[in-house]
Automatic annotation (TrEMBL), chains A, B:
SUPFAM superfamilies for the chain: Winged helix' DNA-binding domain
Keyword terms, alphabetized: DNA-binding, Transcription, Transcription regulation
UniProt-listed Gene3D superfamilies: Winged helix-like DNA-binding domain superfamily/Winged helix DNA-binding domain
Disordered, as annotated region: 1-20
Domain HTH arsR-type: 16-113
Record bears the keyword Manganese: no
Bias type Basic and acidic residues, positions: 8-20
Domain of life: Bacteria
CDD domains reported in the protein's UniProt record: HTH_ARSR
UniProt-recorded Gene Ontology molecular function terms: DNA binding; DNA-binding transcription factor activity
Matches recorded under InterPro entries: ArsR-like_HTH (IPR011991), HTH_ArsR_DNA-bd_dom (IPR001845), HTH_MetalResp_TranReg (IPR051081), WH-like_DNA-bd_sf (IPR036388), WH_DNA-bd_sf (IPR036390)
Name of the featured protein: DNA-binding transcriptional ArsR family regulator
Keyword DNA-binding: yes
């Protein structure tokens, strides 16, 4: 067993874009995928941080990791580590300020599987 | 010169889907394209019917026709003929009822070319 150092853990925290650098095109490209919308809808409903494994998705683990990556790059989620679990939270307030009404509209219209 | 009959003109009016048959997936696929968002944004701002030729788009006429087709199929616009001009209108109220807040959010966030 290899113990992770404190520094190592900090390095594992992925970068997050500044919300001012996010464009609507990138956001819509992220939200057009139904699996990514499901992640967003679950985080929206949960109102708390969820680990990647908590969200039941119909895709492989590596594909799921890719989807979380796209959402992070589009400014929709913030990720951090809690022990060995990668946790996810919606950037709800920041996103609402940048794209008023969009998150709610997409989550409300989320009626597909 | 061939005169179009009244019946012929009516036949040229394309079919419009029932808003209840429209899913969020189809709508987002329509709105993810920046040219289609530009059409929607111009119709939203104009608040009146616009002919296809009125809306300045950076694509060929046949590509533009395709984009209008996709928007019509996704329930975003209604088309009709006025003489030989194909006119376009946003299905603003119907769409708002089916997907509350989405149109406004996308048009407000329309900050790209």
């Amino acid at each position: 067993m290899t113990a992770a150092t404190g520094t190592g853990r900090r390095d594992r925290v992925p970068p997050h874009p500044d919300m001012r650098d996010i464009g609507l095109q990138q956001v819509l490209e992220a939200l057009v995928d139904p699996v990514r919308r499901r992640i967003v809808a679950e985080l929206y409903a949960a109102r708390e941080d969820l680990s990647c494994g908590t969200i039941d998705l119909p895709v492989s683990k590596s594909t799921a990791t890719h989807h979380f990556h796209v959402l992070r790059e589009a400014g929709l989620i913030r990720q951090h580590y809690a022990g060995t679990s990668r946790m996810n939270a919606l950037r709800r307030e920041e996103f609402e300020e940048r794209f008023p009404g969009l998150l709610r509209a997409v989550v409300t219209g989320h009626d597909e599987g």
